[in-house]
Design a protein that fits this description.
This protein is α/β, with parallel strands linked by helices and 239 residues long. It has 7 helices and 10 strands. It has a 5-stranded mixed sheet, with helices on both faces. Strands 8-7-6-9-10 form a 5-stranded mixed sheet. A hairpin with a 5-residue loop joins strand 2 and strand 3.
Length: 239
């Protein structure tokens, strides 16, 4: 294994995502085809993840030994969910001598939101501002802002753990063109924001993780894979 920051990930690439209530896996084949499986069984990710992986590899007709790379949603999300995906990715990568592509779950939500807009026939212009919002429980929200540069979403600033009040203040000062993520279904006060688009169904999924990883040149060793536990880093971000 020779991780590099310059080469794009090889295929077959197996992606894992357990950061939210959905547990999903995806497999990108050398042909470019992407297969995926998922289940929405909260608090049972550790029981079903390996089953989903085995089912997916069987469907594709390949062995674990034929994998060329792994990708993993590293959070933020539920503490246990993030830990499961990272630990499984590290274990598989170490056993198979593979590199891993770490992908932010907030970026995955933003990407899904962008694709939902595209499916509606909306073509965001360069500079389009999209804020991803994931319910962090305990009356808080994981959030990050991204802008469309004409070819991909780029993160603007840091990922943050915010109260609804803090997020409302930030959006009042610097309005986004779109908000995406399940926090929109949890915090009714976010519906008062003047954002042009609200996408509460936007979510993180291994298929999106795999798509983002395919264009991501950052490959890391298993021991270098780090989860994004924002709640351990801060309690609140000042506005």
């Amino acid at each position: 294994m020779n991780p590099t920051n310059k080469s794009l990930p090889p295929a077959p690439l197996l992606a894992l995502d357990t950061a939210t209530e959905s547990c999903s896996v995806a497999l990108t084949l050398p042909s470019g085809q992407c297969l995926s499986r998922d289940t929405d069984i909260p608090r049972q990710h550790s029981q079903v993840l390996f089953t989903l992986i085995d089912q997916l590899l069987e469907e594709a007709g390949i062995q674990k030994s034929e994998l060329a790379c792994l990708a993993c949603g590293i959070g933020p999300g539920t503490f246990t969910g993030v830990r499961i995906a990272v630990a499984v990715a590290q274990g598989l990568a170490a056993a198979l001598n593979l590199p891993i592509v770490p992908v932010s779950n907030l970026l995955a939500v933003a990407q899904d939101g962008y694709e939902q807009l595209a499916a509606q026939g909306i073509a965001p212009p360069p500079g389009f501002r999209l804020r991803a919002v994931i319910d962090a429980r305990m009356h808080e929200i994981y959030s990050a802002v991204f802008h469309w540069d004409g070819s991909a979403l780029q993160q603007t600033g840091k990922e943050q753990l915010l109260s609804a009040k803090q997020l409302l203040q930030k959006e009042t000062q610097h309005p986004s063109d779109c908000l995406a993520g399940n926090a929109l279904t949890v915090f009714d006060e976010l519906s008062t924001l003047p954002s042009a688009s609200m996408l509460p169904a936007a979510r993180s999924h291994a298929r999106t993780i795999a798509k983002l990883a395919a264009g991501q040149p950052r490959l890391v060793e298993p021991t270098s894979l780090q989860p994004a536990y924002l709640r351990q880093q801060v309690t609140h971000q000042k506005t």
